[in-house]
Amino acid sequence: MPNASDSDSASAEEVSLDGGCACGAVRYRLEEKPYDSGWCHCRVCQHVSGSGGMVFTTVHLDRYRILASEEHIERFASTSFGTRSFCRKCGSPLTIHLRHQADEIDIAAGTLDDPEEIAPAFHLYTAEAPSWMPMIAFLPRYKALRPKTRGLDEGVTEAG
Predict the structure, then answer these.
(1) Domains in the chain, ordered, with CATH?
(2) Paired residues of 87 in beta bridges
(3) Cα separation of 39 and 119, whole Å?
(4) What is the pTM assigned to this prediction?
(5) How does DSSP classify residue 72?
(6) DSSP state, residue 100
(7) 77-88: buried (b, 16+ CB within 10 Å) or exposed (e) per residue?
(8) Sign of CA dihedral 80, 70, 34, 117
């Protein structure tokens, strides 16, 4: 959120949003307004979230800062093209870092102190979503990745 002294026309550099894990050990800050927020329904997001998918938002990697307990962050290769992080104390999913978007990092939106700051604008991997998963009808839906995914060639909808 902009500092109290910032005007309504604050630039992305002046924005900061904080978040953290469920147990409060890990704390982070996003030093720019997140962008490209979506709802992913791939099987990995289902497993990691324990639900029908996960809402994520994106910032440039150099605008993501760990504020507390970096030693509690564990990482694992969840796919051939991505690594995820989570709090090793409570298991909260924190980030997704994709090889084809090396200068960006996706943040698990539910870990933001105020998740109202973002809203998903599309659904990914809808073919893998369970039938009971409610979809927000007006959002675009893609069977896999979007045809114009940053870091992939135009029209490519699978990473790996």
Answers:
(1) 25-128 (2.170.150.70)
(2) 73
(3) 9
(4) 0.78
(5) G
(6) G
(7) ebeebbebbbbb
(8) positive
